[in-house]
Design a protein that fits this description.
The protein is of the alpha/beta class and 179 residues long. The protein folds into 2 domains: 2-144, Beta Polymerase, domain 2 (2-Layer Sandwich); 148-179, no CATH class. It has helices spanning 11-22, 53-61, 123-133, 163-178, and strands spanning 2-4, 7-9, 26-36, 39-48, 67-75, 79-88, 97-106, 111-113, 136-138. The protein has a 5-stranded mixed β-sheet, covered by helices on one side. Strands 1-2 form a two-stranded antiparallel sheet. It starts with a strand and ends with a helix.
Length: 179
Amino acid sequence: MGEIGGKEVRIEEIENVIKEKVGKGVITSEIRKRKVVGKERKSLWMRIKKESLKDVIKVLFDFQYPHLSVISGSDLGDKVELLYHFTLGYGEPQKEQLITFAVQLDKKDLTIPTITDLIPGALLTEREKQEFFGIKVIGIPDSRRAFLADDLKNAHPWIRDDKETARIAKDVHAKEVKK
């Protein structure tokens, strides 16, 4: 249980409101328990449809402006999974509610809508996913590269079967061996 905006809010309530408002946009939902400083804490993990991403984030605003920690990701083989890690009650020790939305993208359609219109601070983490996974973030206000050198624009290092990354890595290691 956590306090959000002076009101006690249980993670189960957040889960129920999201399910009620987004409906079939929620694929699976799980409340995970863990110990933090000797106390049991719960976090909400939801797998959602790509088309429902903005809708689930908008529901968080019904409780409080959500803090986006980061968007992380994994190459799952034929899909890329993005994890949107949010906190409600951010900065209030022992009252924070941790919420993660997982979205799987087929590698044949690596597109996702930007959330910068809702969370402007998402810009840098969205740019990072474009560079490292080759994801096209639709509607991103600034798609300039932020991390990788311009000569690596066709390489996506977090994609396991990326041919350009493999070629570059092979060349780099071959040069190191010759030294």
